[in-house]
Amino acid sequence: MDERSHMPSFADLGLDPHILKSLERMQFKEPSPIQSAAIPMILHRKDLIALAKTGSGKTAACAIPICHLAKTDNPHIQALIIVPTRELALQYATEVQKIGLDKGVKAFAIFGGEDSSMQQSKLKHGVHVLVATPGRLIDFIYSRQIDLSHVETLILDEADEMLSMGFYDDLEFIIKCLVHDHQTLLFSATMPRQISMIAKQHMKEPSEISLIQEQASPETIEHRFVYCHREQKGATLLRLIHEVQPKQSIVFCHSREEVERVCRHLKSKFDGVDFLHAGLSQDIRGIVTGKFRTGRIRFLVATDVAARGLDFSGVTHVFIYHLADDPDVYVHRSGRTGRYERQGNVITLVTDRELRSLKEVLKAIQREAVWIGDPPPIRKKEGGRPDNDDKKTRSNRAKPGYRYKRKT
Fold this sequence. Notes:
By secondary structure, this protein is α/β, with parallel strands linked by helices.
């Protein structure tokens, strides 16, 4: 018998028929692992800490049950979702609006860089699910322009990212403003100490779901690496693009200056190129992400502002122009492709300076290095003897993170 016959369906979760109708229209076939695990707990009003990798369906895992629980005859905010960035706030609100459409659930996002009076006007017309960035929400709280007394569910999404951006005190303040009994849901890709502190202080015997250890990187994502010298990066990137012909791709760089330089270089050879970084105005960032999501941009050159949370489902390739020291950054960048079990490709340019960082990345994703072209040469110390690190790399071929394969 086909294994799929044993897999739960959304109907098995006891969801409102209006929600099921929306999910069918959105072509949701069956729950992902995080959705199967989280939705029943949320429906039973349990506090929850959910750790899952990017691209696992975390947004819908939260949006589906809160739309089911929403009372549409109550015009007040019943679910409050806190996210780190404007782009993620818009994406989250759009997802909730689609899932709750047939039931009549109203969702809205507030964030900095927009006219607060217009946002306030929207809130007065009734919102069931509010998505907010911490700073703008606190502005509304201080000015007494928002009523949170009816919130039944508080969601902290991309919690580790918010903490890395310095929002710990803001989150503490927001949580303490909800003085009444409520459900708290915390979604994160990692579990730093500050998240544990929030859970201990503000959550009631939370259930925990962790899918992080099951698989460091989805099998649907192919990771490949290209060794080159620093001054050859631009030419190497152009050659790779000509060879693999990506349908849509993101090129990750480490700084705004590098983003704009690489973007100019690509624009001289290809159409449909644009860039995204935090130095752009909110309006421009919104336009760029919108054009990329609808396919009008084929190559998006970006800093890590595009690496967390944003769902660009059409991305076939991720090119990492500059490898970061932190393996988690690589994991989140690579998660922009291979969404929802689709095939994805990550190609990373590696220079001599980045070889040590590469070893940590390979350990984190539990893969071996697959090289396009020649692998890095063995460096030698004075006297012609191999460097110890390189000798170890070559001799430990059975260990994850050390085997070098050549792929032409």
